[in-house]
């Protein structure tokens, strides 16, 4: 019954009312659902403060960096929970390097199957996400920038058509974003940033748009579906300078560390 109420719409209640059903207790659920829907894009694309009760899946990432400010060894339970326990055959030097390199990497979801914004559905696995993140430390965990880029990419993808003089890199990204089967990794160049109206230098920000195919990792998310603000925090333990296979060295941070 609770799942049914969670997705209840105004149209459904009005139909029940027209059939003579007492719906007086159902309007509160409709109003709650409408508040969450109204806050959805606001949470994804702006930094405005929103009542957590109006979000499908509220989270709080503010304290995550503090877990990396302490010891970088097996005593750091946050790191062990995130990247896993030390394998028996794992060399001491490699493990120490893994712990030393661990950095917080914030990513923003650009697009995915809409179901994963409100629930976990095993039948839709593997789940393919398009996400965006920054390779440069000054902008790597800039939530406002990630949301701004995510919004720009959504608007760019939804354009009816591109201008005739659109650069090659712009056309390629547009094609990839509009192909649900496309797997790609691209660092946004100045042509793309300019076309989307994003100020700043491509070399300074190094914004990467990447595809991520998920199975079991989805269960590590709060409530096993996406945070409403679209921000997925990870721990990266490999070199991020090149931009190659960045996500292969990244692990999802367990939900207990940032679930609101």
Features:
single chain, 260 residues, alpha+beta, 2 domains, six-stranded antiparallel beta sheet, 10 helices
SS-derived structural category:
alpha+beta
The N- and C-terminal alpha carbons lie at a distance of: 24 Å
Biggest β-sheet, characterized?
A: 6 strands, antiparallel
Helix content: 25-40%
Domain unit count? 2
Order of strands, main sheet, comes to: 3-4-2-1-5-6
Overall mean pLDDT: 92
Report the count of strand segments: 6
Order of helices and strands: HHHHHEEHHHEHHEEE
Which percent band covers the strand fraction?
Answer: 5-15%
* Shape descriptor: globular
Unreliable spans: none
* Helix count, DSSP H or I runs of 4 or more residues: 10
Radius of gyration: 21 Å
Describe this structure in words.
With 260 residues, the protein is of the alpha+beta class. It has two domains: 2-41, no CATH class; 57-257, no CATH class. 35% of the residues lie in helices and 14% in strands. The chain contains ten helices and six strands; from the N terminus they run αααααββαααβααβββ. The protein has helices at 2-6, 10-18, 27-45, 77-83, 92-101, 137-140, 143-157, 168-177, 190-196, 202-205, and strands at residues 103-111, 127-134, 185-187, 207-214, 231-236, 250-252. Strands 3-4-2-1-5-6 form a six-stranded antiparallel β-sheet. It is globular, with a radius of gyration of 21 Å. The two termini are 24 Å apart. The relative contact order is 0.17. The model has no long low-confidence stretch (mean pLDDT 92).
